[in-house]
Protein: Membrane protein
Organism: Vibrio renipiscarius
Amino acid sequence: MWLLVTVVVFFFARWVSRKCNTPIMNPLLISMGILIPVLIVCKVPYDTYYADNTWISFLLQPAVVALAFPLYEQIPQIRANWRIIMLACGVGSVMSMFTASVIAIYMQADIGLIASLLGKSVTTPIAMEVSSNLGGEPAIAAILVLIVGLFGAILAYPIYNLLNITHPIARGLTMGTVSHALGTATCAEKNSEDAAFSSLALVLCGVFTSILAPAFFAFAMWLHS
């Protein structure tokens, strides 16, 4: 039952998003705005809802793999600009973890929350695994990833237009570095070249974050003590 409800709500949200034609009316945001109150009113446990939607979760994996096709089409540009790509993704990953750690410590967050924050700008499975390995809470990490992704999906293209950023490498790398899969999905709706570089950044930043997160967590613990 809840699988059907989710699918109907999503297609309704897509229809509303296209009719309104504004970034704030993101399909995911609309879907959440409908589904969460419905589940609360109906008193449906999360485990029950998740079990009914297992197939949607399963389809996330082939959907991510499908992003490899536009990436394959951009191989000549990737080869020509690999230094810029690696530098942008590396700096983006480092700054994401550094700023999250410093702001959290400044606001006197506990060490478990800091561990959950470090993976906020990578895709959900990696963020949850990083958080779990560092002693954080995977559920909090997943929520933070969702929030960051929504901000990117809603605000990125208006900011690009405001600053006159038109190059697909610049737009794609920034979106994938900061807003992972949700941002990449937004890129796919706008421009296939943006989506290709966003998916590349998504993968590279996931690798960088997985490798560097323990070092930043140790740095955060040192500052916290």
